[in-house]
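Hi W., the sodium ion complex you wanted:
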Amino acid sequence: RKPVTITTIQSLYRKNEPITMITAHDFPSAHVADHAGMDMILVGDSLAMVALGMEDTSEVLMEEMLLHCKSVARATKGAFTVGDLPMGSYEVSPSQALESAIRMIKTGRMKAIKLEGGKEMAPTIAKITCAGIPVLAHIGLTPQRQNALGGFRVQGKSTASALKLLEDALAVQEAGAFAVVLEAVPAQVATLITKELGIPTIGIGAGNGCSGQVLVQVDMLGNFPPGRFLPRFVKRYGNVWDEAKRAIEQYRTEVKSREYPTMEHTYPITQEVFGEFEK
Ligand code: KIV
Ligand code: NA
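Structure:
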């Protein structure tokens, strides 16, 4: 398929065709998302939890993000790739943010970057977009700011906070963001923001009125052990954990019972050669 570019995203938006986005954190997860026809692949800092086993996203380093971004870039032939700037790599100043964004493109081989924050990040977004690097903004529930938000909570539930979200969305648009992620925002609020904007909104837990949707791949695949908390917005489209566990258990059983490997999985040599060898 033809590689998705920023122009493709804009044309999907103009045609009112929903934009599809999913996270990936390594070569195989990007490979399958790309083959499935996703418009955009996000190397989210959620990889801290889903790939590195960290407690939250605040721990992941730029170097770690870059390693994963490179592997995703190698697998992605069609989708437009976006790399998340990790906490600590962009808040200090617009210059620090631009340096990090450049690393995301040059070393991480991403096509665009994502960063969290609204109006207060407008100068930063402007600085990065002016350098020719597309920026995906991210407002609403911003997980890197969970300590300031008091945890993972729905944003924009009061009139004042809904107005603040709209203000943030307009500010990041004005600053040059090519799209904005709305996370954990009531559907009516996200729909209204989408109508007010001239750039696409990418929803996660923001209802059906957004210009596109994004989900964390391991969540939507069901690739996690039973009992894990899942946010309300996650739809489980697969049972990858169960399937992988079943297969590994069967392998284990067959090794223990010597059912595996059979002749079909074994390399033969001629009896003649073996006879010589045996002597
Ligand atoms: O890190 C991530 O995966 C994200 C998406 C959930 C938007 O930021
Ligand atoms: Na993220």
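The chain has a mean pLDDT of 97.

W.
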